[in-house]
Amino acid sequence: MESRSANLGASTLVDLVLKRDTEFTHSPVVNRRSKDWEPEPIRWTGIQSMYRLFRTADAREEPTHARPR
Questions:
Q1: Which whole-number Å values give the CA distances from 1 to 10, 27, 38, 62, in the listed order?
Q2: Is 25 strand, coil or helix?
C-alpha cells in the first residue's frame, strides 16, 4: 500500500514540475488550501505571562546583581 501512495505522490509531483495537464494535477489534494488554524488564546496567554515573569525577575535582579534562585 505504501508504494502505491508514494507512486501517486511522485507521479503528481513530476507532472506538476513539468507543468503537465493530467488527472494527477487535477486531484483534490493539489493546490488545496487548508483551513486556518483556530487561535490558541490560552496557550498564547500562558507563554506571554511566562515571558512577563522572566522580564520582571530580570528587572528585580539587575540592580542588585543577585543570582537567580
A1: 14, 19, 33, 61
A2: coil
7 DSSP 8-state letter: H
Q: What is the pLDDT of residues 22-64, one digit of tens each?
A: 999 998 889 888 887 777 888 888 899 999 999 998 888 877 7
Closest Cα to residue 24, out of 12, 13, 33?
Answer: 12
Structural element, H or E, at residue 58: helix 41-61
CA distance 47 to 3: 42
Task: Determine, yes or no, domain membership for 66.
Answer: no
Q: How many domains does the chain have?
A: 1
Stated pTM of the model: 0.46
